[in-house]
Amino acid sequence: MDNEALFALFRFAVDMACVAAFALSGVLAARDRKAELDMFGVVVVAVVTAIGGGTLRDVLLDVPVFWLEDTSFIYCPILAGLAGFVITKDRVHPNLDLMITVCDAIGLAYFSVMGAVKAQELGMGPVTSVLMGLMTGISGGMMRDTYTRQVPFVMRKNGEFYATPTLLGCIVVVNVPGSLGLWAGGLLCLILRLAAVRWKLKLPGVSW
């Protein structure tokens, strides 16, 4: 197997791992919030979490939706959702919040930078590319929270940084060329998100 094939295999493995992580964050959130969903409902939340942001991005960019071109991106969250449902059924996990946070942070970082990269590849300008990356990253989580009857985390005044790490990561991707920008932006987003949870970093809220 040559280097190009190895890289393609590695890229596919990373893609599927990150999609599965975001899907699992949907499953875990549904369990944690007692959304009273059956197996079908849990799988729907998993799929929407994983592909919702990318679907919205592709519709706005007027390009074929990514999971219609490569069905691996729809099969993966379905399988992850089913597996998550079976594993978590009737079980209480003491580290559930941590599991949700890590899975969500991985998916957030991945989808954000890939959204910005795709917009760039389609000839979009820096601002549009950053916005597409931001939307790709946070929209799936917003849909997940809405389906589980929660105020979207990104909008909560008491929530830690969520959109901010995404925005900064996308800015790095757009301004640093090549794979260096991709990895640097993704890692920055991931580290900032986890740091925000660890040290309760948040933007000022408004009291009404």
TrEMBL record:
<feature type="transmembrane region" description="Helical">
    <location>
        <begin position="6"/>
        <end position="30"/>
    </location>
</feature>
<feature type="transmembrane region" description="Helical">
    <location>
        <begin position="37"/>
        <end position="54"/>
    </location>
</feature>
<feature type="domain" description="Glycine transporter">
    <location>
        <begin position="102"/>
        <end position="174"/>
    </location>
</feature>
<feature type="transmembrane region" description="Helical">
    <location>
        <begin position="129"/>
        <end position="147"/>
    </location>
</feature>
<feature type="transmembrane region" description="Helical">
    <location>
        <begin position="66"/>
        <end position="86"/>
    </location>
</feature>
<comment type="similarity">
    <text>Belongs to the UPF0126 family.</text>
</comment>
<feature type="transmembrane region" description="Helical">
    <location>
        <begin position="98"/>
        <end position="117"/>
    </location>
</feature>
<keyword id="KW-1003">Cell membrane</keyword>
<keyword id="KW-0472">Membrane</keyword>
<dbReference type="Pfam" id="PF03458">
    <property type="entry name" value="Gly_transporter"/>
</dbReference>
<dbReference type="GO" id="GO:0005886">
    <property type="term" value="C:plasma membrane"/>
</dbReference>
<dbReference type="InterPro" id="IPR005115">
    <property type="entry name" value="Gly_transporter"/>
</dbReference>
<feature type="transmembrane region" description="Helical">
    <location>
        <begin position="159"/>
        <end position="176"/>
    </location>
</feature>
<protein>
    <submittedName>
        <fullName>Trimeric intracellular cation channel family protein</fullName>
    </submittedName>
</protein>
<feature type="domain" description="Glycine transporter">
    <location>
        <begin position="13"/>
        <end position="87"/>
    </location>
</feature>
<keyword id="KW-0812">Transmembrane</keyword>
<keyword id="KW-1133">Transmembrane helix</keyword>
